[in-house]
Predict the structure.
Amino acid sequence: MSEFIAPLEMMIEAFRRLPGVGRKSAERMAFGILDMTEGETENFLAAVSSAKKSIRPCSECGNITAEELCPICANPERDRKIICVVEDSKAVISFEKIKEFGGVYHVLGGVISPRSGKGPDSLNLFSLSERIKKCGAEEVMIATNATVEGETTAMYISRLIKPTGVRITRLAYGIPVGADIEYADKLTLLRAIEGRREF
Amino acid sequence: MSEFIAPLEMMIEAFRRLPGVGRKSAERMAFGILDMTEGETENFLAAVSSAKKSIRPCSECGNITAEELCPICANPERDRKIICVVEDSKAVISFEKIKEFGGVYHVLGGVISPRSGKGPDSLNLFSLSERIKKCGAEEVMIATNATVEGETTAMYISRLIKPTGVRITRLAYGIPVGADIEYADKLTLLRAIEGRREF
């Protein structure tokens, strides 16, 4: 039996359902809520609830947005000639942080994963060919994660959009910058050799 | 400027206000909320909100409870002859976990802290003398934390309840079980020497 009274236990379990939160952290957060004033708790709940209600997929690319279009699609300065296909909005943020990519994104909202019963139908995928034509895109850079599912999805996408005649690229695999070759796993090292370039 | 859209940024900041949550964890939790179904988010919000609404201080001891009395005060088997004075409900849970203390608690809801402007008036303190008489308590074990504030509070309480004639005790200070003497700080070692006992 839990040493906590029922409503507290339920709050702890609610926090535990969030990603990266273990039992101890969830307990600390729940007590944090109890230590708050009524007003502070209301502000917390309102922030979560209104974010959840107002945030939706961009009608153009699938990225998260509070408007019809996400800030990137709404920006006329972005280069529509290159579309970067990513798994989720977190990847968009990673790309935006390096401030080097000036194109637009296409956010799949997941990957093809037979294991968890997710097929291509569950992804924001079938608008992509249409979008390539509409934008007059010249390159689609597939930037799904370097996992089995990410690979499978990349393969599927490249076959799907091949008929449009667009140039299809993939992020380079290799040794992470600053890493020791000694610690690179075999597959990474193999890909780094395959992808070697002229000095 | 934040790389996140406004409502997402507000949700991240709301999570950050919880104890032990840094920026990165708050971001992960916020995206966790976005990945949930509407129903899951509603369950999360309901669990937090109803815990906050239903949990209040026990009218007897100040411990958290969803009823009039906390489970400990409501239990007729608990020994009212010994009252353990603690800073907060987290301490009650720590004591209950060891399953050795059969008495009741008195939860202060904080400590005297001139630095943060908290005087004795802000604590659940003045019902204690009354309670000692009502229960016919024979011992009050003061178990505030081993901090300057905890010490000050313990001192204050011992003076406050002295007139009741009850036996007043304090948790032992010393080397934590399993710890190396080499790593004990000076003050702990000093207290361990002062508190030494016959073999």
In short: Chain A is about 40% helix and 15% strand. Chain A has a mean pLDDT of 92. Strands of chain A lie at 56-57, 64-65, 79-86, 103-107, 139-142, 167-170. The first strand of chain A starts at residue 56 and ends at 57.
